């Protein structure tokens, strides 16, 4: 019998591209994914909740987690830390459940280095103009912050080559459907199935 381990799926892209919206809609339609909540030192935004959107940490707390090796990845973005708890991800994958990470591009690159067998999905904006509109409509950023985010977005788009898939987020439902197809496809990959069968044969021989 196949004893399949879970797959780590990483969704990232420029700030304002709609990662959170796409992830929430994806999870409404699927009970088969475990969401790994990130840690951050940024201030809690209106409507966000501890343990649901993020685990909110002070700078000192976060830096201690780094020192203790408790993060799968971390990054400093617009003067705030973001990171992924290592133990939760590894334990969940071993239990056979897929883990879905929604993180910034810098963090995704680190995960790629530390966990190359993961599946990396880049959420792409229809255009930079549309990305600017989405950031402005948030109403949470100053004009200077918007410009900084757009400049950072251009740099992040240049890093697209480290990803396995690119999904354009011009329509949330369409983007979610494409990501669901990616998940199904990855579970049917010959390499994964062959690896599991070889392990079974090795154990039975």
From TrEMBL:
This enzyme catalyses: GMP + ATP = GDP + ADP
Its annotated compartments are:
Cytoplasm
Q: Which residues bind ATP?
A: 13-20
SUPFAM superfamilies assigned to the protein according to its UniProt record, in alphabetical order: P-loop containing nucleoside triphosphate hydrolases (SSF52540)
Top EC class for this record? transferase
Task: Check the record and name the Pfam families matching this protein.
Answer: Guanylate_kin (PF00625)
Q: What is its EC number?
A: 2.7.4.8
Q: Which Gene3D superfamilies match?
A: Guanylate Kinase phosphate binding domain, P-loop containing nucleotide triphosphate hydrolases
What CDD domains does the record tag this protein with?
GMPK
Q: Which SMART domains does UniProt cross-reference here?
A: GuKc
Q: Keywords on this record?
A: ATP-binding, Cytoplasm, Kinase, Nucleotide-binding, Transferase
Q: Report domain Guanylate kinase-like positions.
A: 6-184
Q: Does the keyword Cytoplasm apply?
A: yes
Gene Ontology molecular-function annotations: GMP kinase activity
What's the chief localization of this chain?
cytoplasm
Superkingdom in the source lineage: Bacteria
Described purpose of this protein according to its UniProt entry = Essential for recycling GMP and indirectly, cGMP.
Q: Which family does it belong to?
A: Belongs to the guanylate kinase family.
Protein's name in the database: Guanylate kinase
Upper classification of the organism? Bacteria, Bacillati, Bacillota, Bacilli, Bacillales
Q: Which gene encodes it?
A: gmk
